[in-house]
Backbone:
């Protein structure tokens, strides 16, 4: 499983104000199972699978892991849990 869409530290794939789609429930469950570090996906985030949202804030954990906060959707979201919405 790919845990980062970018190889450059401190470079986000999505910008604040950009519309994204949250990954499928299966992908969120897989990410939760595989991710062993900070800000793991929680079961409370599962109901938001496949929903569109707007990026409210982009932040970086040490070593460049990108974390997103979405408008009106709780939690931190990792890049592999989001896809571009078109």
Residues:
């Amino acid at each position: 499983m790919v845990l980062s869409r970018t190889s450059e530290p401190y470079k986000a794939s999505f910008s604040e104000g950009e519309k994204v789609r949250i990954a499928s429930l299966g992908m969120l469950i897989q990410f939760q199972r595989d991710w062993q570090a900070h800000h793991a996906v929680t079961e409370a985030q599962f109901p938001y699978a496949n929903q569109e949202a707007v990026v409210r804030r982009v932040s970086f954990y040490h070593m460049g892991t990108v974390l997103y906060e979405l408008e009106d959707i709780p939690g931190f979201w990792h890049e592999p849990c989001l896809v571009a919405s078109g």
Summary: Residues 1-7 have pLDDT under 50 and may be disordered. The helical segments are 25-34.
